[in-house]
Amino acid sequence: MYNETYVKQTTHHGWQLPAVETLLTWPSLITMVRTMLAAAFAIVAALTHSEQWLLAALLTYWVGDILDGIVARWLHQETRSGAIFDIMADRLCVALIYIIFGLWHGPLIIPVGLYLFEFIFIDGFLSLSFLFWKLLSPNYFFLVDKQIFQLNWSPLGKVVNSSFFLIATVVFQNLWLSLGIAALVLVVKFYSLYRLYTVVKLPTT
Q1: Contact between 69 and 27 (Cβ < 8 Å)
Q2: pLDDT, tens digit, 9 for 90 and up, residues 63-119
Q3: Burial code of 62-84, b = ≥16 C-beta within 10 A, e = fewer?
Q4: Band of residue 14 on the pLDDT scale cut at 50, 70, 90
Q5: Helix (H) or strand (E) holding 9
Q6: How far apart are CA 147 and CA 181, in angstroms?
Q7: Which secondary structure element, helix H or strand E, spans residue 16, and what is its range?
Q8: How far apart are CA 65 and CA 35, in angstroms?
């Protein structure tokens, strides 16, 4: 496993990058395992129409997503490759889980579709925009713009953007509440995208 070849290169902007990009890290292994398990549990849930298996998929994704980030920071194994790997893994897991759940609960597929449009497409692009700068991941976007960071990747931002929709859709199964939250999150993402190009402005070199 890749360990302390993590030679820190500090630029004049103040952030640090590893000297070598790799996926051979413990955090990326956790990302791979939790994604494979969550996907497998979701497929079993779809085949057996079991909400218990779908809950297992959701918990595996959620716990694993927290764990890989903690381990990356703890072992000083944060890499841009690992961040991209994690971003793509999140979208695969969330898409599988919510599509299966939405198909089981009729009208809820509408807010699920809207939320997945936001999460996979708009938020997916926003999350990858850290690559325009010499940042390790979106978790360091406050070095570029604090407002976009607060709205999207701060601890509170992450909770508001994901947990509220989860509670409204999965726990309460309330169509209008779920749809309202999905629409509100989409507005936040469009505003962040607008700010990225008009206020922050992407670097040209």
Answers
A1: yes
A2: 999 999 999 999 999 999 999 999 999 999 999 999 999 999 999 999 999 999 999
A3: bebbeebbebbeebebbbbebbb
A4: very low
A5: strand 9-10
A6: 20
A7: strand 16-17
A8: 9
Size of the chain, expressed as the number of residues it contains? 205
SS3 205: coil
Listed in sequence order, the DSSP H helices in the chain are 26-48, 51-74, 80-104, 109-116, 123-128, 146-152, 155-158, 164-166, 175-195
| DSSP-based three-state secondary structure for 24 | coil
For residue 100, the one-letter residue type is I
* Host H or E run for residue 176: helix 175-195
Place of tokens 């299966």: 100
Of the candidates 106, 94, 112, 116, the residue with the CA atom closest to the CA atom of residue 42 = 94
State the burial class of residue 93 (Cβ atoms within 10 Å of its Cβ: 0-12, 13-18, 19+): buried
Under 8 Å CB-to-CB from 115, ≥6 apart: which residues? Answer: 98, 165, 169, 178, 182, 185
Rounded to whole angstroms, how far apart are CA atoms 177 and 65?
26
In this structure, what token pair is assigned to residue 190? 């469009």
Band the pLDDT of 19: cuts 50, 70, 90.
confident
d(CA 103, CA 100): 5
